[in-house]
Design goal:
nine-stranded antiparallel sheet; six-stranded mixed sheet; 29% strand; globular; binds MU-OXO-diiron; binds calcium ion
Length: 625
C-alpha cells in the first residue's frame, strides 16, 4: 500500500464536527434505476419479500470455502489452467515448471475483479477477470533464486487479464475449451492509448516515439462492466514495479516511486528502470477497456479517466444517456474521481462507443463536513490547473491527476477500493478499506468523511448526486464504520447491524439489489487484535434498506475474497479467491509452498492456487435468498 500524499488538503480539524450523520436525499431513485438497469442485463423480478434469506455462516479459520446450508461451491479456472486458446493449451504443471510462453496462455495468478458476459443468457457466457500480481515463491519451481530474464517474463505473463468461456450443464459450470473468445492480456500485450494523454510528450518513449502504444497492463485490481458490453480494469500498484534509483523527482515521489522495486523487473527489463525510461512510468495507472466479445480487438488505456492507483471503474448512466465513470485510488490519503462523458452512449455496443470514454470531464471529490460534497473539475486552464503551476495542457492534467487534485483541495480518503451503484436508488457506495496512518504523526488527521484515527477496520461511504449522475454536488453519509461496537446494537450507527467484519474491499450490487461486501484483511494482521473475531477473509451480504449484514462465505487460509459476478438471473455467483496461503511476507517459500494452504487441490497438491469459485443454490433459487 502506497502513501505519498503530502498535500495540505483539509482535514476535520480545519472544517468541522465529525459527529453528524446526514440522511441522504433519495429523490432520484426510480429514474436512476430505470437508466442504470440496462447495465445489469435482464434483472430478476423485483423483491417479493426479504432479500436476505440464507443462514449466516460463522467466522472460519479452515483451509476451505464455506457457504451457507443449501448452497454449493465449485472451483474452476485456477492459476495455470490453459485459458483455451485454440491449438495452444499448455497444461498446468503441479511443480509450476511451465515456461513464460506457456504461462501467457494459462490463467494468471492472483485472480481479482471479474465480470460475466452472457453468450446464452445465464447458462453460457464469458468471464473476464484480472490477475493482480504474483507470488514469485509459487510461480517458479525455485522461487526467486537465480533471478533471470525468463523469470521476469513469466511474472509478466502471469499478470493482466484473462477472458474465458464458461458454460453450465447439470448444475455444474465448466470452462469451454478451446474457445474462440479465450484470450490473455499480459504485461507484453499492446494497448492503444485514448484520450488527452495519447501522443503526449510525457507518454513518448524510445520504443514508442508516438506515445500511442503501451505494452501491457499491470496490477489490475477491481473491474467494472460498461452498458455497451466492455470490461473496465484498474491499474493499481504499478508504481511499485519501477526502479527509481537515487534520482527520484518530486513528481515521481508523489506517485510513490522508490529507489528499488520489490518485483525486480528492472534488473532484466529496462522498461521498468525509471532512470533510463522515465516516461514509461507515465504509461501505467490508467483504466483499461477491453472488449471480451471481440477476440481481435485492441484494448485501450482510457486516459481521460485520469491517472491514479486505480482500484477499478464503474459506470452509471445519466438521464440523457451519458456515461459517468466512478473510480477511486487505493492508496492512503488519495482520492475519489468521476468522469462524465461528453457524448451519449450510442446503440450498437462496443463498436459504436469506441471513443466514448476519450472525451468528457474528469472531477475529483471533496466531502464537506456538513454532509454535502462537491465534484471539483480537473480542467486545464481552470482554477490552479495552469501552465504556471505545471499543467501545460489537458494531457498533463490527466497524467498528473494526483497533483491536480492536491491543488484543487480534494478530500484525502482512507484508501478507496471498490465502488458500487445501487440500481434502485442511484446511491453510490465506496469501500474505504483501512488507513492505520490516519492521525499518525506527520499524517493528516481525521475529517468528516474519514472520521477515525488509526482506522484499522475501514468504512463504507455513500452519496447521492443532486438530481443526476453528472451533478457537481451531492449529499453523503456513511453506511458503516466497520468494527464499531455500535453496529451490534439495534440502533446501529450508520444503520448497519449484523455480522462482524473489517477491511471492506470488494463491493457489488446483485441483480436483486443486495449489496455484497468482500474483505481483504492483510495477512500481517489477520486473526490479531480486533481481527481475532473476523476469521479468514469473507463475503457478506447487506440489505441496504434494513441495514442487516450477514456473512455468506468464508475463504481458505490466508486468502483474500475479491470480485463477484452474477449471471443475469442471479442464480449463479462467480467469486474469486486470491492468494490462498499468502505468507505474512507475501512471498512463499518454494521449498515448502504448502506451509499455509493446500487450497483448492487438497492433500495431493504441491502449491496453493488462486481460483474462481462458482456458487449455486441447491434449490436453484437466487443467490442470497
Ligand atoms: Fe488491489 Fe486495492 O486492492
Ligand atoms: Ca481490492
Ligand atoms: Ca485491498
Amino acid at each position: 500500500m502506497e502513501d505519498s500524499n503530502r498535500s495540505g488538503n483539509a482535514s476535520l480539524h480545519e472544517i468541522s464536527d465529525p459527529a453528524r450523520r446526514t440522511v441522504l436525499r433519495l429523490s432520484m431513485g426510480a429514474a436512476a434505476a430505470a437508466l442504470y438497469g440496462p447495465m445489469l442485463g435482464a434483472c430478476a423480478s423485483p423483491r417479493p419479500g426479504p432479500l436476505l434469506g440464507f443462514t449466516s455462516v460463522p467466522p472460519s479459520r479452515l483451509d476451505s470455502v464455506i457457504v451457507p446450508p443449501g448452497y454449493a461451491a465449485q472451483v474452476i479456472a485456477p492459476w495455470g489452467e490453459p485459458v483455451g486458446v485454440p491449438g495452444a493449451m499448455p497444461p498446468w504443471r503441479p511443480d509450476a515448471g511451465h515456461s513464460a510462453a506457456e504461462q501467457a496462455l494459462q490463467m494468471g495468478m492472483h485472480h481479482d475483479g471479474i465480470q460475466y458476459y452472457p453468450l446464452d443468457g445465464s447458462t453460457r457466457g464469458l468471464l473476464a477477470m484480472n490477475h493482480e500480481y504474483v507470488d514469485d515463491g509459487l510461480l517458479h519451481p525455485d522461487g526467486r533464486a537465480d533471478w533471470s530474464a525468463e523469470k521476469v517474463r513469466k511474472a509478466q505473463a502471469a499478470h493482466g487479464v484473462s477472458v474465458i468461456e464458461v458454460a453450465q450443464a447439470h448444475g455444474q459450470w465448466q470452462m469451454v475449451r478451446p474457445s474462440r473468445y479465450a484470450r490473455r492480456f499480459t504485461a507484453a500485450t499492446p494497448f492503444a492509448v485514448g484520450g488527452p494523454a495519447a501522443g503526449h510528450a510525457l507518454m513518448r518513449t524510445a520504443a514508442d516515439p508516438a506515445g500511442r502504444t503501451v505494452l501491457g497492463t499491470l496490477n489490475n485490481c477491481a473491474s467494472g462492466m460498461t452498458p455497451w458490453g466492455t470490461y473496465l480494469s484498474g491499474e493499481e500498484n504499478w508504481a511499485g514495479y519501477f526502479d527509481g534509483g537515487d534520482t527520484i523527482t518530486e513528481d515521481q515521489r508523489r506517485w510513490g516511486l522508490r529507489p528499488a522495486s520489490w518485483a525486480r523487473w528492472g534488473q532484466h527489463d529496462e522498461r521498468f528502470d525509471a532512470r533510463r525510461h522515465p516516461n514509461e512510468f507515465h504509461r501505467f495507472g490508467w483504466v483499461v477497456e477491453i472488449d471480451p466479445s471481440d477476440p481481435g480487438s485492441t484494448p485501450v488505456k482510457r486516459t481521460a479517466l485520469g491517472r491514479a492507483a486505480h482500484e477499478g471503474a464503474w459506470v452509471a448512466v445519466t438521464k440523457d444517456g451519458r456515461a459517468v465513470v466512478y473510480s477511486g485510488e487505493d492508496a492512503a490519503f488519495e482520492y475519489i474521481y468521476k468522469f462524465v462523458s461528453r457524448d451519449r452512449i450510442a446503440p450498437g455496443g462496443a463498436a459504436a462507443n469506441r471513443e466514448l470514454l476519450d472525451h468528457g470531464t474528469l472531477y475529483v471529490a471533496r466531502f464537506d463536513a456538513d454532509g454535502r460534497g462537491r465534484w471539483l473539475p480537473l480542467v486545464h486552464g481552470q482554477g490552479p490547473l495552469t501552465a504556471a503551476n505545471g499543467f501545460a495542457d489537458p494531457g498533463e492534467v490527466v497524467i498528473k491527476a494526483r497533483q491536480a487534485s492536491d491543488r484543487l483541495g480534494a478530500t484525502r480518503m482512507d484508501r478507496p477500493e471498490w465502488l458500487a451503484i445501487d440500481p434502485r436508488s442511484g446511491t453510490v457506495y465506496c469501500t474505504l478499506t483501512n488507513n492505520s496512518g490516519r492521525g499518525a504523526p506527520g499524517s493528516p488527521g481525521v475529517d468528516a468523511a474519514n472520521p477515525r484515527e488509526r482506522n484499522t477496520m475501514g468504512h463504507i461511504i455513500r452519496w447521492q448526486e443532486d438530481g443526476d449522475f453528472h451533478a457537481t454536488t451531492f449529499a453523503w453519509n456513511h453506511l458503516v464504520l466497520a468494527g464499531d461496537p455500535a453496529n451490534e446494537r439495534p440502533e446501529a450507527r450508520g444503520n448497519v447491524k449484523g455480522d462482524f467484519f473489517g477491511s471492506p474491499d470488494g463491493l457489488v450490487f446483485d441483480p436483486r439489489g443486495l449489496l455484497w461486501i468482500q474483505t481483504d484483511v492483510s495477512s500481517s494482521v489477520m486473526h490479531q487484535g480486533d481481527y481475532a473475531r473476523a476469521g479468514n477473509n469473507q463475503m457478506l451480504a447487506c440489505d441496504v434498506a434494513t441495514g442487516e449484514v450477514r456473512r455468506f462465505l468464508t475463504g481458505p487460509t490466508g486468502c483474500e475474497i475479491t470480485g463477484a459476478a452474477f449471471t443475469p438471473d442471479a442464480r449463479t455467483l462467480f467469486v474469486n479467491v486470491q492468494h490462498p496461503g499468502e505468507t505474512p511476507r507475501d512471498i512463499s517459500d518454494p521449498s515448502d509452498p504448502m506451509k499455509y494452504s493446500r487450497w483448492p487441490d487438497g492433500r495431493a497438491a504441491r502449491r496453493p492456487r488462486s481460483a474462481t469459485v462458482v456458487i449455486r443454490k441447491l434449490d436453484g433459487g437466487p443467490i442470497g435468498s
